[in-house]
Amino acid sequence: MLRITILLRQLLRLLKLNRVLAKLLYPSGYEAKFDEAILNRIRPGDTVWDVGANVGYYTEKFAIATGEKGTVQAFEPVTDTFDILSNNMSSFQNINFFCYALGKSNESLLMTDSDETGSPTNKILGNDFEHAEISTINIQVRRGDNLVDEKEAMPPNVIKIDVEGHEGDVIEGLSGLLGNNAVHTIAMEIHFALLDERNENHVPKFIVTELEKHSFAVNWTDPSHIVAYR
Questions:
Q1: Which CATH class is domain 2-99+154-229?
Q2: Alpha carbon 36 to its chain's center
Q3: pTM for the full model?
Q4: Least enclosed by CB within 10 Å: which of 83, 98, 180, 217?
Q5: H helices within 74-143, ranges in order?
Q6: Contact 210/21 with Cβ under 8 angstroms?
Q7: How far apart are CA 177 and CA 148, in angstroms?
């Protein structure tokens, strides 16, 4: 089933039919279906990790859903966007902010730096990237498991990931937490087009295999979004 789903998604993209299909299947917007699926999984008192928080679209929803006894850990590595995020969410007392990206190791990496402050399309490039016409910045990357082991961040119950093609590295850096049954939901966008550009077509299968290996039921809410739960 996994192989068929991924191959179908890639075929639709090659035929430029994926957006058309999404509009037909999800006339109210596939984001709405994804939002509903993840928000229905959040319980009052949960700790939610918002990985790739940007300016706080989901951070705010999560802070409301978890309630006063819950916590949101919002991760945003671009300093200008981080400042907007923390300012936007300043009225909430249950949000902790981290100016990090999550990945498979603790390191500094290059990331695109859009002229548009708060751009949701900035993406991690790696330190071997060379392109004089693209503006880049250095960001700090932390392995999610290490943040919990070192007590810098609270262990999550729910993890949302939207990191513009870096999702495989995030999952790899959560290998220890995936085995913790307190983590009951993981939701993410799979950026097939960006992964195709980097010849990383194996990543969607890797992600789903890792989740299923740790007893998550993987549900595709649309051709690009996963909500996995146990």
A1: alpha beta
A2: 16
A3: 0.86
A4: 217
A5: 79-88
A6: no
A7: 9
